Amino acid sequence: MTTSEESRQAGPEALRLNRQVCFAMYSASRAATAAYRPMLEELGLTYPQYLAMLVLWEAEPRSVSELGEELGLDSGTLSPLLKRLEALGFVQRRRSAEDERRVEIFLTDAGAALSAKASGIPQRLADAAGLTAAELDQLRDTLGRLTNALHASH
Amino acid sequence: MTTSEESRQAGPEALRLNRQVCFAMYSASRAATAAYRPMLEELGLTYPQYLAMLVLWEAEPRSVSELGEELGLDSGTLSPLLKRLEALGFVQRRRSAEDERRVEIFLTDAGAALSAKASGIPQRLADAAGLTAAELDQLRDTLGRLTNALHASH
DNA sequence: GCAAATTCAATTGTGCACAACTGAATTGCA
DNA sequence: TGCAATTCAGTTGTGCACAATTGAATTTGC
User: Fold this and answer.
1) Which of residues 102-131 of B touch A (CB under 8 A)?
2) Which residues of B touch A154 (CB under 8 A)?
3) Which H or E element spans position A62?
4) What are the pLDDT digits (tens) for A7-62?
């Protein structure tokens, strides 16, 4: 019996932890965050803060809701996170003049300069991953399709 | 140029959010938790609580540290989580008589009975995932190797 | 046999996630 | 034109994660 055939079976076997893809994802995601931690500590960032900075390094200013759309996070997560980034001196939060409901997030000079210090991190992470570039590409593709399907499912 | 060749490149491209496998994992993991949420709501559990129950359904009692080893979580996460499971009436926490440092976690009747209500969840999730069984197996395998490599990297 | 090292669960403090809600600003449409 | 619906950021409350520390119990070395 192949592994693939086993995973199609129902019954009590389905509840075995080590059969569950979602647990593998949950563990891998936490392991990745842990692998980033010492690298990001040098920048003074947490992983979610680093993600927000990645988006801003691509284009700024961005409103809170634009950041939320890119990252899949809501204002309940982003509002305090962005305040912490502002307290760190990496971004500035400013009410939009055209639409006063919006808060635009600008990079400070220190925030913009940080991208140079972060430039080596993706490669260091890729080295730590122990997968080939082709495997990483396939993994990203599969995870992307999975995320889309899961979002569509409810 | 293939995607695989691109991912080997350094430079500013490496900081692009949609190139990052770790963000894909982070997003997929949160999407999975969100997909579980309405199903687990019927049981009165959160996803980490469900994971702890999965371990206990395989064998019990388990000490806090045994659960922590299975799930990769420490006592700072598990102690309050297990107290909430006890408050829900699904487990009982009891000091070990042989080694009074240990706290053994037992299933209550309600906790043991819950596995029947949970038995359909893995299949429902697999359906929502929109991947073939072979893809899910490969994904689990790749994620497992990735998790091991990341843990070994620091 | 006993002191030092280790094991173990719990606590504290910080920072996400996310549901639910608030209140201000803007848009749309009758 | 005016008001109902929508958009937007922020707040509140709950529940993880995890580093660091505490204090009790046990094991190890000598």
Assistant:
1) 115, 118-120, 122-123, 125-131
2) 34-35, 38, 128
3) strand A62-63
4) 444 566 778 877 799 999 999 999 999 999 999 999 999 999 999 999 999 999 99
Residues 89-108 of chain B within 7 A of strand D, judged by CB, are 98-101
Residue for token digits 């982003």?
A: A78
pTM of the model as a whole: 0.92
Token pair, residue A89, equals 């001196």
Could you tell me the CA-to-CA distances from B90 to A9, A55, B19, B52, B97 in Å, in that order?
Answer: 27, 43, 42, 11, 22
B76 and chain A: CB distance < 8 Å anywhere?
no
* Alpha helices, H only, B88-132: 109-118, 121-129
Total residue length of chain B: 154
Q: What is the largest CA-CA distance in chain B?
A: 65
Verify whether the Cβ–Cβ distance B15 to A54 is below 8 Å. Answer: yes
